[in-house]
Design brief:
The chain is α+β, with helices and mostly antiparallel strands. Helices cover about 30% and strands about 30% of the residues. The protein has eleven helices and 16 strands. The model has no long low-confidence stretch (mean pLDDT about 95).
Length: about 350
């Protein structure tokens, strides 16, 4: 078994990362010979501990041979016993890394348990934001590319299985470098992936400094259409550009740096203001409106039906007075929260 240790200064790409990180955080990532906890083994365990405000210490335990797996697990257990760890952060670790480690530790009768630690799975948390991130892939490298995080490693974990198995037969410095680098950059990349949660602030904040205007345009079939354009200056900076359209409201968002632009469809100068808690509303087909359950008794049961995401809205008249009032910012903030 080989052990590699390196202490470095964490280069944070966005201030929100510092809000998430705390002394006692431990980033963890493993490399395995396959996906089966029974038939495959761990050949590299990487951990990165935040030891100061922006100082991180990386330890990597590497198996020169498959028979070294128990030694890797023992090294991890010793580290966890000797250090004050409060939270374990992983990328898809709740489904893969931690269960895999537990299963392999049980096979070797090594008492590793993660039950007493707080856990934060970056992958699972990011997937919850699919509604507005709308990325083609949520793999770690895809998120790093989206956030502008650069890395030297060009391989996937799957690609490196063959490299490792070949290494156990014919060890070379080049193979070790590739195996170590991939795990090392996965570990150092994880803290900066937390920058993606800056977008949560965008969609949950009260937006001010808004300028609105109505615009008309023609569809390809010649249909005359109208839309509301809103431009806002944000009080914080975003880590990268985001462009998305809500599947129900059809509102389109383009945001970058400290600039936010919204395109909202209009119908006869009216904008739809959707409610996310549609299960608490009824839809009145005869009037084309949605009302809260608390006042639904004014309509006979035969005249109402359960609201759906598509029809649970009220309308707002987009007049010149509205465009030059505080209502514009309130409206923009509500539209953004609907993406959550």
């Amino acid at each position: 078994m080989q052990t590699w240790t390196k202490t470095c200064t964490l280069s944070v790409i966005h201030p929100i990362v510092n809000e998430f990180l705390h002394i006692g955080d431990l980033f963890l990532d493993i490399e395995t010979t396959g996906l089966s906890r029974t038939n495959h083994q761990i050949y590299l365990i990487g951990i990165a501990a935040l030891v100061d405000h922006n100082i991180i210490t990386v330890n990597q335990f590497f198996a020169d041979q498959l028979t070294d797996e128990a030694n890797l697990l023992s090294a991890l257990l010793l580290f966890m016993q000797e250090h004050s760890i409060q939270r374990i952060l992983t990328f898809n670790g709740n489904r893969f890394d931690l269960p895999f480690l537990t299963a392999r530790a049980n096979i070797h009768q090594i008492p590793i348990s993660f039950d007493s630690y707080e856990r934060f799975d970056i992958y699972q948390e990011v997937r919850k934001r699919k509604n507005y991130l709308q990325l083609q892939s949520y793999r770690q490298k895809s998120l790093e590319q989206f956030l502008g995080i650069c890395r030297e490693d060009l391989y996937s974990g799957g690609d490196l299985i063959k490299v490792y198995l070949q290494y156990t037969k014919h060890p070379t410095p080049e193979a070790v470098h590739l195996l170590q680098l991939h795990n090392y950059e996965d570990l150092l990349g994880m803290p900066n992936l937390l920058a993606v949660f800056a977008y949560e602030r965008l969609f949950s904040s009260t937006i001010c400094n808004c300028i609105g205007e109505k615009n008309t345009y023609f569809e390809l079939d010649g249909t005359d259409c109208e839309e509301l354009l809103i431009t806002c200056t944000l009080p914080f900076q975003l880590p990268g550009t985001i462009s998305c359209q809500h599947p129900v409201s059809k509102t389109y968002i383009h945001a970058y740096d400290q600039t936010l632009r919204l395109r909202i469809p209009l119908c006869q100068h009216l904008a739809r203001l959707y409610y996310s808690d549609y299960k608490n509303y009824y839809y009145i087909p005869s009037e084309g409106i949605s009302i809260h359950k608390s006042v639904a008794d004014i309509y006979d049961k035969s005249l109402r039906e359960k609201a759906t995401p598509e029809n649970c809205y009220t309308t707002v008249e987009i007049s010149d007075t509205f465009l030059h009032s505080a209502q514009l910012s309130e409206f923009a903030s509500h539209v953004l929260r609907y993406f959550l």
